[in-house]
Write a structure and sequence with these properties.
The protein is of the alpha+beta class. It is built from 4 helices and 5 strands; from the N terminus they run H-H-E-E-H-E-E-E-H. The strands form 2 sheets. The chain has a 3-stranded antiparallel beta sheet, with no helix packed on it. Strands 1-2 form a two-stranded antiparallel ribbon. A hairpin with a 2-residue loop joins strand 3 and strand 4. It is globular, with a radius of gyration of 17 Å. The two termini are 24 Å apart. The C terminus is likely disordered.
Length: 175
Amino acid sequence: IDGIAQPISAATARCLAASAGIIPLVLGGDSVPLDLGRSQRLFSRSQKLALAERDGGCAFPGCTRPPQFCDAHHIRWWERHHGRTDLANGVLLCSYHHHLLHREGWVIDVIDNRTWFTPPAHVDPAQRPRPGNNLRRILLRPVVPRAEENDAGPAGAAGAAEAAGVVGAEGERAA
């Protein structure tokens, strides 16, 4: 790999190739299936790791919550739409945005491994899709939200990261 003098493991090479879209991400490192269909409702640990690799944290536009603060959500709901527990039907959402999505009726689509969020008409009458946060967030150090920010949603998480000088207002790495 250009710029890296040391060899990397096969697992790292697979992750890089999957992230670059060179190979599909269908099986986990131990050949664990990432598509479970209707056989299991909850996403497996392997699926959550693959979603963390794809989504990098909460996929909702503007949110900076890392994967460890997120739930795997069925895009086509398990009960209501008979959604499958497959990687293509999953997305990582923080608790705040997971509840917001259920409460207000946002629609999620995954197109070419990128999530798109369509707001309900009361948020945007034209219901224009918004790109999700599918770029992995690389933080120089972990950001631990203060107690008063735990349920503050995206502003609290982004504010804590920005105050720490780790990311900019748009969730980008600080220079």
